[in-house]
Specification:
It is a single chain. The protein is of the alpha+beta class. It has two domains: 176 residues, Ribosomal Protein S5, domain 2 (2-Layer Sandwich), CATH 3.30.230; 129 residues, 2-Layer Sandwich (Alpha-Beta Plaits). 43% of the residues lie in helices and 26% in strands. Helix 3 runs antiparallel to helix 4. The longest helix has 24 residues. The chain is globular and about 60 Å long.
Length: 324
């Protein structure tokens, strides 16, 4: 059994696509994967929270449970991971892989990458294939490409390594040493959205108004650099203010929506230091930062405003093998 953490983008979503840095945190919600050997040569993969199950044998997919289209999209990347590791192992064995995730799906919290990293670690450990974290990252990243086309790589990186990372397209990711506790409320609007269409929206605004949007891009970079300093000093007040400014930029680009604004305003009114959308926007999740003594009332306010909300904290533990 292995597990890997979900993530939130604390700063820099959307701007990261255009070459600016983003600040990403691993959070204490995890995806779990259990791998066992089978007597036959089949590969059986099931996801209890998505209610999907399928057999793969000689590239033939047989759906046992759930929507066939969804099963193919969600389970194919996990088959890819298992087969890559079986290649390294050198012997064809049958596997049962069972996935159970506490991470909300399609909410911008990196659930598919957390599942991918957990599956890679579980299968590797079962087959005694020596896998470094870099190996887990690489195979999870390749699997993410099957899901998202051209992902930035930030989701599998944070799920594998944990902690906090600064990510930039041209330089990749570098770990940040953050000692400060970062108590967050995460509010899920449960409004499904397409990351791709949100990215297209920003690209279109940038093409139409380059003189307006380029200074916004530079401002977004300054926000990230200031936030890194504030986190090192443990100044949550500053981090909160910067979250509010970052959200205003995202709102200006048109990627927020009513469902998000409702929750963000509720959080701020209840005493959050800052609140913003996280991920692609247009639905999905928002995050609010609050002092420990205010966190419960911020949580309740977001729930009252209609959000599916929970408290999350930064976790320094990336992918890990669970004690049996």
């Amino acid at each position: 059994m292995a597990s890997a953490p979900a993530k939130v983008i604390l700063f820099g979503e959307h701007f990261v696509v255009h070459g600016e840095p983003a600040l990403v945190l691993a959070i204490d919600k995890r995806a779990y994967a259990k791998a066992e050997k089978r007597e036959d040569k089949k590969l059986f993969i099931q996801s209890s929270n998505l209610n999907l199950a399928a057999y793969f044998e000689n590239d033939i997919l047989r759906i046992e449970r759930g929507n066939p289209k969804e099963a193919k999209i969600k389970l194919e990347p996990l088959k890819y991971i298992a087969e890559k590791i079986l290649e390294t192992h050198g012997e064809r064995v049958g596997l049962n892989i069972e996935v159970n995730s506490t991470v909300p799906v399609a909410a911008g919290l990196g659930s598919s990458a957390a599942v991918a990293a957990a599956v890679a670690a579980a299968v590797g450990a079962l087959l005694n294939v020596k896998m470094s974290r870099e190996d887990v990252f690489r195979v999870a990243y390749e699997a993410e490409k099957l899901v998202h086309g051209t992902p930035s790589g930030v989701d599998p990186a944070i799920s594998t390594f944990g902690g906090a990372l600064i990510f930039q397209m041209d330089t990749g990711f570098k770990p940040l040493d953050v000692k400060t506790e970062i108590p967050l409320v995460i509010g899920n609007t449960c409004v499904e959205r397409s990351t791709r269409s949100q990215i297209e929206k920003v690209r279109s605004v940038k093409e139409r108004y380059p003189q307006v949007v380029e200074p916004m891009m530079r401002a977004a970079r300054e926000i990230v650099l200031n936030a890194v300093e504030a986190l090192k000093k443990g100044s949550l007040d500053t981090v909160g203010e910067l979250m509010n400014i970052n959200h205003a930029l995202l709102y200006g680009l048109g990627v927020s929506d009513e469902s998000l604004e409702w929750l963000i305003n509720a959080a701020r009114k209840a005493g959050a230091l800052g609140a913003k959308l996280t991920g692609a926007g247009g639905g999905g999740c928002m995050i609010a930062l609050a002092y420990k003594d205010k966190i419960e009332q911020v949580l309740e306010a977001v729930q009252r405003a209609g959000g599916n909300a929970f408290i999350a904290r930064k976790t320094d533990e990336g992918v890990r093998i669970e004690p049996s």
